[in-house]
Write a structure and sequence with these properties.
heterodimer, A: about 220 residues, alpha/beta, Rossmann fold, 6-stranded mixed β-sheet, 4-stranded antiparallel β-sheet, 7 helices, about 30% helix, B: about 220 residues, mainly alpha, about 85% helix
Chain lengths: ~220, ~220
């Protein structure tokens, strides 16, 4: 196992409420961790902590042995975070939005090409306010596809997507894993990601379960 | 780095142009507030002349406030602000760029319209150029300081009133030196020191606002 993103003893307190405590996870290269849990169980908070938008009360986050908690430079280069909100300006066209973020985040990918992969290339000239919520989500996912980062944090990436869109996304996520990327995704629906490569992190009891039987041992090791 | 700042400025200006309402609203408000005074005070030219500079400056400060609360709010609502924080671009640069964009879309139209209102307020002939100069020098400070207030209130749902209470007292130095410089020019005195103090205040606000506003945004997003 090569580089991996490792969280240890992570504790998140918002207001007076402890969202989670002593959370542990490991995300090796080419693997996905699917966050599972009820609403309010801290899936988004965990992602925000990893992305550096929230500070953790406790614990550490390391990649390849180096602490990355709060290391903004490293995070902005290596992590792409897709939040609940799409981060697209309704007054601007999809193409303009993506072009803007491409210059902000040093994207390398070709926008039209990546947009075609997720089936939104015919809308590049439309203002975002004309799009349906599923189309807007696809546009936001195009930004993720163009982003040079290897680690994807996807917070409910399938919200608003139709069945075909979910299938496209699952295919793209599998491609990303094949290319050595990592994915941490929170979702309520089955994404059909290669079971050999994905682990399920249950936010209720912080248990890691492999979605593949032979890797259950790996899950136990991590605990 | 400058290229990135320019593309943020271009984005915000074009958003404001497409949206249309913000700039029109600010200019409309400016005109209406200033034209209230001749109605309230009566057509006495001496009194209007004496208060003209002060009225135009106060109206400009108030108009500037109108569009301030949207400076970061729209980006916060659609998630762009999170992305700015996470992007490799320093948040301080984003604040500078957005302040400049705010100045271009709010203060610049006010400066263009101010001489016309000056005629209405019976501003003496010697006062027109100094009025434009002081506004050019002083209004950037309004956008920079306003940026601090806008970033402090970005997560509040109805932050507009609080924003006014926070920011208006900080606008007082701009008001004092802006009005003094124009009045000195009208009276035939040397106004250099007022101009320099106004410029100094603008530069001071440009130097501290990016750090203060960026820190406020970071803690506000938590």
């Amino acid at each position: 196992m090569n580089d991996s993103l490792k969280g240890q003893n992570l504790t998140c307190i918002r207001g007076d409420r402890t969202i989670f405590s002593n959370l542990e996870f490991e995300l090796p290269e080419g693997h996905a961790v699917i966050l599972n849990g009820s609403n309010g169980s801290g899936k988004s908070s965990l992602m925000k902590i990893i992305a550096g938008l929230l500070s953790a009360q406790n614990g550490s986050l390391s990649y390849d042995g180096h602490n990355i908690l709060g290391n903004k430079d490293w995070i902005s280069r290596n992590i792409c975070y897709l939040a609940h909100k799409n981060g697209l300006k309704p007054e601007m066209t999809v193409g303009e939005n993506l072009k803007f973020w491409a210059s902000m985040e040093h994207h390398q990918g070709d926008v039209t090409l990546e947009a075609r992969k997720i089936g939104i290339d015919h809308c590049l000239d439309l203002p975002v306010c004309y799009l349906s919520s599923g189309q807007a989500r696809r546009a936001a996912l195009t930004r993720v596809l163009c982003h040079p980062a290897t680690i994807w944090l996807l917070d409910e990436p399938t919200v608003g997507l139709d069945v075909a869109g979910v299938e496209l996304l699952a295919g793209l996520m599998n491609d990303h894993l094949k290319n050595g990327g990592c994915i941490l995704a929170a979702t309520h629906i089955e994404l059909h990601i290669d079971p050999h490569k994905s682990t399920i992190l249950n936010m209720a009891d912080f248990s890691l379960k492999s979605s593949h039987a032979s890797e259950i041992n790996l899950g136990k090791d991590l605990l | 780095m400058i290229k990135l700042a320019l593309s943020i400025i271009m984005r915000d200006v074009s958003l404001s142009l497409r949206h249309g309402s913000a700039t029109t609203m600010v200019v409309g408000f400016f005109i209406i507030v200033v034209s209230m005074f001749p109605f309230a005070i009566g057509p006495e030219q001496n009194i209007l002349q004496r208060i003209s500079v002060g009225v135009i400056w106060v109206a400009a400060l108030l108009s500037c406030l109108l569009s301030l609360d949207r400076m970061f709010q729209t980006d916060y609502e659609d998630g762009s602000l999170d992305q700015f924080v996470l992007s490799p671009v320093p948040l301080e640069l984003v604040v500078v760029a957005k302040s400049i964009a705010h100045w271009l879309t709010t203060s610049l139209p006010l400066i263009v319209i101010a001489p016309i209102l000056g005629i209405m307020m019976n501003l003496p002939n010697e006062g027109f150029l100094p009025l434009i100069y002081t506004m050019l020098i002083g209004t950037p400070a309004l956008s920079f300081i306003g940026g601090i207030g806008a970033s402090l209130t970005v997560t509040l749902r109805r932050g507009g009133v609080l924003l006014s209470l926070l920011i208006l007292p900080l606008y007082i130095p701009v008001l004092i030196f802006g009005v003094l410089a124009v009045k000195a020019s009208i009276g035939g005195y040397d106004a250099t020191s007022h101009y320099l103090l106004l410029l100094g205040f603008t530069l001071f606000s440009a130097a501290i606002a990016p750090w203060a506003a960026a820190a406020a945004i970071r803690s506000g997003l938590e």
